[in-house]
Every structure is written in C-alpha cells, then in structure tokens.
Amino acid sequence: MSGTTQNFAPSVAGPARVRVYEWLRDEIIKGTIQPGQFLDEVWVSESVGVSRTPVREAFHQLAAERFITLLPRKGAQVRTVTTRELEEVYESRLLIEGHAISQLCARGQGAPPEMRNILDQMGAAVKLSDWFAVSALDRNFHRTMVTVAGNSVLTELYDMMRSRQQRVAVRALTVRPERTGLIDQEHWAMIDALSRNDADTALKVLKRHLLPVTEIIALLPAE
Question: Which of 74, 136, 194, 200 lies 20 to 30 angstroms, CA to CA, from 128?
Fold first, then answer.
C-alpha cells in the first residue's frame, strides 16, 4: 500500500493464500484499509510474511468478490461501494430474504433456532462496540433464513453480496451506533413473525429493516 510503512500483523492461520485473503478481506471490511487505497503485492507479501504468489492468488479471489479492482502491472485498488450498488444490494437482499421468509412460513418451519443464538451474541458484541463482529453476526442472522430455506443457488447469490453488505454495515454502525437498539428490535420482530409463520408481518419488518441509512448514502459516491 503506497505511502505507508505501517505493518498490520495478521493473526489468521492456514495456507498462505487463505491467510492473505482473510486478512485483506477483514481489514477492508473494518475500514483499516480504506476504499480507493492501492495495494502493492510487495507490501502485502511483507506484511503477511508470504511470497508474492499467494498474494496474487488472494487478489484474484478478492476481485471476484468485488472487494478490489485488479490493476495490470500496478497491483490492486480497494473498491468503493457506490450509492447505486448499495441500493441494488438492498433490493437483491429483499428479493432473496423475502423468498426465504415465504418458504419458511409456507412450510410452517418457524424461526430457525440459530437466529436467537446469533442475536444473543450480537448483544454481547454491541456492548463492546465491536462493529466488525456485529456486522458479521448480522449477516449470519439473515443468511440463516436463506440457508434454511434450502435453495443453494439463492444462497450462493446471497453470498456474492457479502463484501458490500458487510462493509456498509460496519460504516453504518460506526456513523450511527445508536441504531443498534432499533436493529435489535426489528430482528426480534422478525423472529416473532417467523415463529407464528406470519409471512406478511415478517416481510413488512424486513422491508423496513432494509431501508438504506440516509447518513451512509450521503457518504457514498453516486456511481
């Protein structure tokens, strides 16, 4: 990363490519490595303590997941989420999660038990103001519905939105941490509606829950 000598020591273990990928992914989500910043292969390899080959492999995976843009002979640049992308992500989430809610209620399955466990964990993370952990748990909460609904193609499509979904969540929580109370209320309302197999109410809660945060929209470029 040009213009810096700071060395972030990654704590992840495993194969070199995975270590590079997971470290860069998490630092981008946290905002430690910011949108628009350039990533140099040499800097990354020295920071993680690996050769440049696994760095290039990790770059390709991150590019496929839209965390970064590859620049020929220059390395990579962290992508900036735009307002249009954010709105499209919310629209896509509404379609996929809404379908999951309809399926769960139609089958009379109720709310998956894991959703309650995740909310308990989220409460603990909120108390620590660990927005990275909160955003990851929030994503797992919603993904649980999609996974249990049983459509593997929709789950795969949902996972493709991870980078933009979680990066924006961290930014939103950082800007407006007081929203955690409202988020928690909406999550429990969703569980309550699912437990009663009340698809209409669950969908109304989801639509309200997925409204873009005005303060975040103002921070993002239009295109």
Answer: 194
Which residue carries 């996972």 as its tokens?
159
Q: Domain 16-78: give its CATH code.
A: 1.10.10.10
Contact predicate 112/144, CB 8 Å: yes
Q: What's the rounded Cα separation, in Å, for the pair 202 and 102?
A: 9
Domain boundaries, the chain: 16-78, 83-219
H or E element at residue 163: helix 162-175
DSSP 78: E
**Each residue of 154-213: pLDDT tens digit?**
999 999 888 888 888 898 898 889 999 999 999 999 999 999 999 999 999 999 999 988
**CA 206 to CA 97: how far, in whole Å?**
8
